[in-house]
Amino acid sequence: MSGFPCPHCGRALTRSRRGAPAGVVKIRCPRCRYLMFDYPRACAGVVVVKDGAVLLLRRGHPPRRGWLDLPGGFMEAGEDIESAARRELHEETGLAVGRVRPMGMVWDRYHLRGFGVLPTMNFYFVARWRKGEPRAADDAAAAEWVPFSRLPALRPRFAWAHMDGVLRRARRVLLGRP
Ligand SMILES: [Zn+2]
Asked: Ligand 1 centre from 137 Cα, in Å?
């Protein structure tokens, strides 16, 4: 996080794990002692499944431009989780889905340019495709249906560490397969 200015006095902030609970980073100004923590950001997404295939996106912007991603993104203030997931799906693919099933939350990390790593809480839903073809927009450069059987080979191109586990869980929840 070198160079990110203190919101109080403008000096570059430093980050340290010293004196913080396990896994927590303290972000401190060396001049005025302004202190914050790497508070997590909430994200929401949807795994959409159609005939044994899952909807994957190719990222159109940094970070991880060109890598594979799931429809989803940062929640806005005041939004509920399911609405955020549906909004992101619609913004990135134009699709709307019917009933969604919650799959819980997984932790991950996101690299914000100029600031550094942020912990993220990623809430996911799984839904069956209903109608329409996905059209990539917003953060997505491309959208395509990928058979579950092809996912292991594509794993090195997944943008985020949490995607593999989320896709496995979605398959189990929706298709009843291990
Ligand atoms: Zn300061």
From this structure: 39
- Domains along the sequence of the chain with CATH: 1-38 (no CATH), 41-174 (3.90.79.10)
Bridge partner residues of 108 (DSSP): 120
> In sequence order, what DSSP letters do the residues of 11-58 get, joined into one string?
PBPEEE-TTS-TT--EEE-TTT--EEE---EEEEEEEEEETTEEEEEE
Q: What separation in Å is there between the alpha carbon of 119 and the centre of ligand 1?
A: 23
Neighbour-count burial of 78, counting CB atoms closer than 10 A to its CB (0-12 exposed, 13-18 middle, 19+ buried): exposed
Ordered per-residue pLDDT tens for the chain, 178 residues: 457 899 999 999 998 888 888 878 899 999 999 998 889 999 999 999 999 999 999 999 989 999 999 999 999 999 999 999 999 999 999 999 999 999 999 999 998 887 888 899 999 999 999 999 999 998 889 999 999 999 999 999 999 999 999 999 999 988 776 6
* Cβ atoms of 4 and 116 closer than 8 Å: yes
Compute the distance from residue 25 Cα to the ligand 1 centre, in Å. Answer: 17
How far does the centroid of ligand 1 lie from the alpha carbon of residue 32, in Å?
Answer: 4
What is the whole-number distance in angstroms between the Cα of residue 14 and the centre of ligand 1? 10
Full-model pTM: 0.89
Rounded to the nearest whole angstrom, what is the distance from the C-alpha of residue 102 to the centroid of ligand 1?
Answer: 41
